[in-house]
UniProtKB/TrEMBL annotation:
Its cofactor is Fe(2+). Fe cation binds at residues 105, 147, 151. It comes from the Bacteria. Its EC number is 3.5.1.88. Belongs to the polypeptide deformylase family. Gene3D superfamilies: Peptide deformylase (3.90.45.10). This is Peptide deformylase. SUPFAM superfamilies: Peptide deformylase. It is an enzyme of class 3 (hydrolase). The lineage of its organism: Bacteria, Pseudomonadati, Bacteroidota, Flavobacteriia, Flavobacteriales. One of its GO terms (molecular function) is peptide deformylase activity. It comes from Mariniflexile aquimaris. Removes the formyl group from the N-terminal Met of newly synthesized proteins. Requires at least a dipeptide for an efficient rate of reaction. N-terminal L-methionine is a prerequisite for activity but the enzyme has broad specificity at other positions. Binds 1 Fe(2+) ion. Keywords: Hydrolase, Iron, Metal-binding, Protein biosynthesis.
Length: 196
């Protein structure tokens, strides 16, 4: 089932998610719904807060980035095949010199800005079977994971922008929170909650 994506301005996007365990109600259905929702919106990642749940869960599928002509064949293959579920994730280490990449977010449609992040991460998490994993990632895969990880920490990519950039996009962010935007996927805007 395709769920509405929560828009910028909703308090749920600023909350730190709580850990879950394998007894989480209807977990398999939730995962299926999250993947359906992400693919419907042409996203490469989706975190539970973006569908209104303050839990430490996010999904990633970097296949759309595999068409990037700046990537080597090996990188394209890695991107094409990278699809993961991250539960109760904790980034243990971020390494390297920060690099800029133009990021966007399904909760903040039509706003894209350069965000600086470190190129390599080590992360510990539970997979969809609640088995513990500890892995290192770099490049675009690391960046998508960092972006989604920020969501479960109550951080949006716009929080990482300079004061000047924030002022320049303030009006656009305000319009998104009021629902004054056209998107081709389902969204729920902060003032719509009262009507439900």
């Amino acid at each position: 089932m395709i769920l509405p994506i929560i828009a910028y301005g909703d308090p749920v996007l600023k909350k730190v998610g709580v850990d879950i365990n394998k007894d989480y109600p209807e977990f398999d259905t939730l995962l299926e719904n999250m993947f359906d929702t992400m693919y419907n919106a042409c996203g490469v990642g989706l975190a539970a807060p973006q569908i209104g749940l303050s839990i430490r869960l996010f999904i990633v599928d970097t296949a759309p980035f595999s068409d990037d002509e700046d990537c080597t064949e090996a990188e394209q293959k890695d991107l094409r095949e990278f699809k993961r579920v991250f539960i109760n994730a904790k980034i243990l280490e971020e390494e390297g010199d920060e690099w800029a990449f133009n990021e966007g977010c399904l909760s903040i449609p039509d706003v894209r800005e350069d965000v600086f992040r470190k190129p390599k991460i080590t992360i510990e998490y539970l997979d969809e079977n609640f088995e513990t994993k500890k892995e290192s990632f770099d490049g675009l895969i690391a960046r998508v994971i960092q972006h989604e990880y920020d969501h479960i920490e109550g951080i949006l990519f716009t929080d990482k922008l300079s004061s000047l950039k924030k002022r320049l996009i303030k009006g656009r962010l305000s319009n998104i929170s009021k629902g004054k935007i056209n998107v081709d996927y389902r969204m729920r805007f902060p003032d719509q909650k009262k009507k439900r």
